[in-house]
Each structure stands twice: as structure tokens, then as C-alpha cells.
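C-alpha cells as discussed.
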């Protein structure tokens, strides 16, 4: 870790998280998440670089950071794809819009299936696959010169972050699954 970085082991312990599951870095009163966070952990910057820990329950899939990130990326793709050529309407345009929306839809389904770990993981895996498919369509859009390289990189990077969070949850689903 760099100088000035802080580990929040107290928060990790309070949420029964392994010490390497959640790492955050505080820089200039901003918190950067380096891995997926616990479903109940919310970090807000305090005074003079101190960090105040608050628990905010997640009431719906729409409260998940990964869902919001995927939804915003899907909306950006929708707006960007309006500029694609008409001849791509029923191919690239349709495919990239469908796959980007499907990431969010599968996250919503996964959230409602948290009672059953296998069903929860299956939907998260579907979401992961749709995010990777969206990245493939983004590459085609850039290569076909329908999308600016820098914009393509930005959206592709967003899906890398979405994939990172999904894989982290898939690899450790127990904090997310509802207990009977």
C-alpha cells in the first residue's frame, strides 16, 4: 500500500469479512474501492482524513454499486449506439444493447434468488457472461469505426470493473446469500 493509504480492518471484522476481501484507500477525502464491498458496508469520509463507518442496508438490487455501474454503462451504450449506421440496427446495435441491458436484468434476478446459493450464482454467472459479451461488441464497434477509441476504452473499463465485482461476489457468495 502507498503512504497515506489506510486499511479498514475494523470494518472488515465488523462485517465478518476476510481481511483481503475489502480494501479501501483514502486519498484527499475520497474513498476508492479496490475490491467488492460487503453488502452492508458504506464508507463516508470524516474530518481530516478520518473515516466514519456506517451501515446502510441494501433494500433492492438497485442499491448495489455494481448494478448502478452496469445500468449507467448500458444507458451510455444506448446513447452511443444511436449514432451507429442504419445497416447495423438489427445486428451490432441490437446485440450490444441487449447484452448491456442483460447484465442489469441478471443482477436483478440474482438479487431475488439469494435464498438459494446455486440459483444466485447461476444468475451472477449469466450477468458476468453478458458483461463479457458487451465488451466484445464494444471492440467490434471500435474496430468498425462506429465508436471513438477513447470512449470505447472508457466503457470497456467500466465493464472490467463490473466483471471484477461480479467475480469477487461469485468467489465469496456467503455474505450475500440470505440465511434461513
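Sequence:
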Amino acid at each position: 500500500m502507498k503512504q497515506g493509504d489506510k486499511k479498514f480492518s475494523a470494518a472488515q471484522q465488523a462485517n465478518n469479512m476476510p481481511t483481503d476481501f475489502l480494501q479501501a484507500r483514502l486519498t484527499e477525502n475520497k474513498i476508492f474501492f479496490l475490491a467488492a464491498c460487503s453488502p452492508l458496508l458504506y464508507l463516508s469520509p470524516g474530518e481530516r482524513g478520518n473515516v466514519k463507518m456506517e451501515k446502510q442496508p441494501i433494500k433492492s438490487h438497485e442499491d448495489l454499486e455494481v448494478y448502478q455501474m452496469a445500468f449507467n454503462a448500458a444507458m451510455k451504450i444506448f446513447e452511443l449506439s444511436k449514432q451507429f449506421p442504419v445497416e447495423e440496427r438489427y445486428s451490432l446495435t441490437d446485440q450490444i444493447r441487449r447484452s448491456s441491458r442483460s447484465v442489469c436484468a441478471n443482477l436483478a434476478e440474482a438479487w431475488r434468488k439469494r435464498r438459494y446459493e446455486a440459483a444466485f450464482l447461476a444468475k451472477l454467472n449469466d450477468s458476468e457472461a453478458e458483461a463479457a459479451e458487451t465488451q466484445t461488441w464494444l471492440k467490434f464497434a471500435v474496430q468498425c469505426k462506429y465508436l471513438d477509441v477513447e470512449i470505447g476504452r472508457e466503457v470497456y473499463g467500466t465493464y472490467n470493473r463490473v466483471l471484477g465485482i461480479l467475480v469477487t461476489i461469485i468467489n465469496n457468495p456467503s455474505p450475500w446469500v440470505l440465511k434461513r
